[in-house]
């Protein structure tokens, strides 16, 4: 068993690429993934699961078909399963995703932004 | 559907009692709970699930039978299922718990620190 704390800032210093989730912890079948984002992601949805965004640094917006949610550091948003959404960040933003293991970042979208879903740091 | 972001600081201003988890979000069957802690909790374990602690403000220690984990803001620790642990905080500490819905805070312990497990704020 791994009895070491995960320090988000230390982990964030280990990578720089955008839109490429890095797994830092797992609780049962749920994974915690750090992501650096900037620019516009692709519209997509996850038919099988909700997805949680927690902003650690910077600002982001989650665009929805009928609205948008702006998130600051210390804010959390649950994207309900099946809800089409597009994450956007004008400047670099650091987020913590909480979602089932093996979830693909682009969901149902055919996109060149699809990233590996099994990278631990 | 609730398309509102959860602001941890605003939610924390809504209560003051210690060791009494408040649910602020749910993802599938997983809940996110804010807790203010100070002093020593009771030794306990959760036979059926892992449990995640994320420190938002202050410092805490998770004592284990064979060691201890100190956590600062921006740090996460997964207590594996079945592992006996005791959270401790010398000064008030604010944490985010991530765990299955309906989990009881004192697990297998018979304790007057057992809190309701269904309080949303």
Give me the Rg of chain A, rounded. Answer: 14 Å
CATH class call of one domain in chain A: Mainly Beta
Q: What pair of chains forms the biggest interface?
A: A-B, 38 and 38 residues
CATH names the topology of one domain in chain A as Jelly Rolls
- CATH architecture verdict of one domain in chain A: Sandwich
Q: What structural class do you assign from the helix and strand content of chain A?
A: mainly beta
Q: In total, how many beta strands of chain A?
A: 8
The helix tally of chain A amounts to: 1
Share of residues in helices of chain A: under 10%
Outline of chain A, from the CA principal axes? globular
Give the percentage of residues in beta strands of chain A. over 45%
Most strands sheet of chain A: 7 strands, antiparallel
pLDDT below 50 for ≥5 consecutive residues: which ranges of chain A?
none
Quickly describe the structure.
The structure is a homodimer of 121-residue chains. The first copy, chain A, is built from one helix and eight strands, in the order βαβββββββ.
Could you explain how this protein is built, in words?
- Two copies of one chain form a homodimer.
- Chain A is globular.
- The longest helix of chain A has 5 residues.
- Chain A has 121 residues and is mainly beta.
- Chain A has a domain of 80 residues: Sandwich (Jelly Rolls).
- Chain A is 4% helix and 47% strand.
- At the A-B interface, β1, β2, β4, β6 and β7 of A face β1, β2, β4, β6 and β7 of B.
- β1 of chain A pairs antiparallel with β7 of chain B, so a sheet runs across the interface.
């Amino acid at each position: 068993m791994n009895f070491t704390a995960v320090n988000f800032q230390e982990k964030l210093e280990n990578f720089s690429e955008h839109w490429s989730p890095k797994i830092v912890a797992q609780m049962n079948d749920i994974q915690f993934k750090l992501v650096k984002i900037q620019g516009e992601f692709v519209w997509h949805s996850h038919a099988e699961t909700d997805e949680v965004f927690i902003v650690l640094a910077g600002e982001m917006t989650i665009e929805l078909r009928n609205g948008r949610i702006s998130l600051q550091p210390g804010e959390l948003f649950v994207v309900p399963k099946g809800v089409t959404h597009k994450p956007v960040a004008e400047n670099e933003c650091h987020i913590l995703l909480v979602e089932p293991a093996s979830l693909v970042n682009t969901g149902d979208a055919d996109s060149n932004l699809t990233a590996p879903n099994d990278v631990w740091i």
